[in-house]
Write a structure and sequence with these properties.
Length: 171
């Protein structure tokens, strides 16, 4: 929360405004989402499913996919030395997320999570993520938007140069 003119406002209002200022112009209705091949993604991370990931319907619950999104992207950035979750001054806050599902996954599968960058703004990035089981087509795909902010003030900041360089390899 932030305080502006004596009122408490969610910090996300400033973040959303930042993203909207960088957003693409209004677009036409999108076609029905379809599965994509592995070749559509630039980097991959293997993640083992866990017994607890399955729900009462016998497949991985939808909320787990969002955890995989975070794990794949943040691990990629940490491993390349451009995200320090403990001492870094700049952090990415998720302001938007979405996922489409095409095929079920279940424990004890190992999934491959593909990542790419679809849009790189001055302080924000749209990651697109594909989740693969045994097939060469996505079992699910989605996106999330990070707005990078100062860790203390939670105000948007320009992408640090080293981070931007790494993100450009995912375009």
């Amino acid at each position: 929360m932030s305080v502006r003119a004596g009122r408490r406002e969610p910090c996300t209002a400033a973040l959303r405004q930042c993203w909207q200022n960088e957003a693409m112009p209004e677009s036409r209705p999108q076609p029905k989402p379809t599965a994509e091949p592995r070749s559509a993604y630039r980097a991959f991370r293997s993640i083992a499913t866990r017994w607890m990931d399955n729900d009462a319907y016998g497949h991985v619950n939808n909320v787990v996919y969002y955890s995989w999104f975070d794990t794949a992207v943040n691990a990629y950035l940490i491993e390349r030395g451009v995200l320090d979750i403990h001492q870094g001054e700049t952090i990415g806050l998720v302001i938007e997320t979405q996922c489409n599902y095409f095929a079920p996954l279940a424990f004890p599968e190992t999934v491959e999570v593909g990542i790419r960058v679809a849009k790189l703004g001055s302080s924000s990035v749209r990651y697109e993520v594909g989740i693969f089981g045994a097939s060469d087509l996505t079992a699910a795909k989605g996106h999330f938007v990070h707005v990078y902010v100062d860790k203390s003030t939670r105000r948007p900041v320009p992408l640090p140069a080293p981070l931007k360089t790494v993100l450009e390899t995912l375009l």
